[in-house]
Amino acid sequence: MADLRQLPLDLGHRSAMGEADFLVAPGNADAVAWLDAWPDWPAPALVLYGPPGCGKSHLAQVWRARSRAPLLGPEDLDPAEVPHLLGPTRTAVIDRTHEISGDTTRERALLHLYNVTKEAGGQLLLLAHYAPINWTLRLPDLRSRLVAAPAVGMAAPDDALLMAVLVKLFDDRQVRVGEDVIAWLMTHTERSFDSARRTVALLDRAALAAKKPITVAFCRQVLEPKDKPAGS
Questions:
Q1: Surface-to-core class of residue 64, CB atoms within 10 Å of its CB (0-12 exposed, 13-18 middle, 19+ buried)
Q2: What is the pTM of this model?
Q3: What CA–CA distances, in Å, run from 199 to 112, 116, 189?
Q4: Tens digit of each residue's pLDDT (9 = 90 or more) over 156-213
Q5: How many angstroms separate the Cα of 93 from the Cα of each of 79, 206, 220, 231?
Q6: How many of the other CB atoms lie within 10 Å of CB of 166?
Q7: Which ranges of 49-139 would DSSP assign to H, the alpha helix?
Q8: Contact (CB, 8 A) for 142 and 16
Q9: What integer best gives the mean pLDDT of the chain?
Q10: What count of other Cβ atoms lies within 10 Å of the Cβ of residue 204?
Q11: Under DSSP, is residue 54 helix (H, G, I), strand (E, B) or coil?
Q12: DSSP single-letter state for residue 70
């Protein structure tokens, strides 16, 4: 089995397979190490938490490719369906897990799924915006299990990582931009992987349609609001 650090973090237009394409930084290094350690986790569940755009979903996709785990959401947690939710390797990824808080039916389903997974010797990867200790769970048994599970925080991308991501996204599309463009985007776009992907895709489409290179002036034309209030 390939080490996770040798697999690409799919950040956009295509997925390359070189080690350099997988960007490990202080904000995600602990999460990468935990996923590399699979299936030797000390508990039936691992929680990855952090703000939207920090890269949880991308790491989960890489892990899914290795584990063949299905991707589930809170809406899939039906107590009657629990025996059928695990994948062929007795694994599953649950996105937005914190959203089940306060929904007794979903909580009961997750508790059942946790117990089934443990009995089968499998693992659950739970994605959330914040750690289980801060979830308002109604079922004490579920809360005790999830609070005891390993929980790894992920930070929003720092400057060095976000710059590297922007460069990679343009390279993946075979688009050359100057350092001034990257510097401008760093101060004029939302600081997340999702925003970086959307921004680069938008600029690429606009440049192709206009048959123009992507410059700072072009970025301003495409990305800045067209109708600013007077005096702004």
A1: middle
A2: 0.74
A3: 41, 42, 8
A4: 878 888 888 899 889 889 999 999 999 999 999 888 777 888 899 999 999 999 999 9
A5: 17, 36, 39, 49
A6: 23
A7: 56-67, 104-120
A8: no
A9: 86
A10: 19
A11: coil
A12: P
72: which DSSP letter? E
- Across 65-94, average pLDDT: 94
Cα–Cα distance measured from residue 110 to residue 213, given in angstroms and rounded to the nearest whole number: 50
Contact indicator for 44, 123 with CB cutoff of 8 Å: yes
Provide the residue type at 134 as one letter. Answer: N
Distance of alpha carbon 215 from its chain centroid, rounded? Answer: 29
What is the C-alpha to C-alpha distance for residues 47 and 74, in angstroms, rounded to an integer? 15
Q: CA-based angle 217:220:221, to the nearest 5?
A: 90
Distance CA 45, CA 148 (A): 9
**pLDDT at residue number 45:** 97
CA distance 181 to 194: 18
Q: How many residues does the chain have?
A: 232
Can you tell me the distance from the alpha carbon of 108 to that of 29, in angstroms, rounded to the nearest whole number? 33
